[in-house]
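Allow me, if you will, to draw on your knowledge of protein folds for a short while. I have a record of one protein: its chain in single-letter code and its fold written as discrete structure tokens. The full record is reproduced below for your convenience:
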Amino acid sequence: MDMTNYQWFMEKRKMASLNMFGPYRFNEETIKKVVSKNKIGNYALGYSKDGTFYVKYVGRSDTDLLVELIARLAKGHSQFKFSYASTRLEAFRKECRNYKDFTPSENKIAPAAPEGVNVQCN
């Protein structure tokens, strides 16, 4: 079966999963209610339509996911998803995977490695 590049891309996106909690409304009250303080983790910002979450941006926090999400509120997204990570390296690897799987339109460059960790997003 021959697939166009677009068809292949859409099939890949259907199979990919963020493996995150949510989606939740992207506002300070909800963030403070559902995200724990001082946790390393990952997030995706976007919106839902017809039961599908559309990823516009993926990121991580190596120190406090709650603070990172609140700092992103001005970006104007309607929903977010999140997950916790045990280590900065684990969070970085997940961010790379999500960046590659979803190619979010608002991520202009590949994720940078955590400070002091010599690894690339590949």
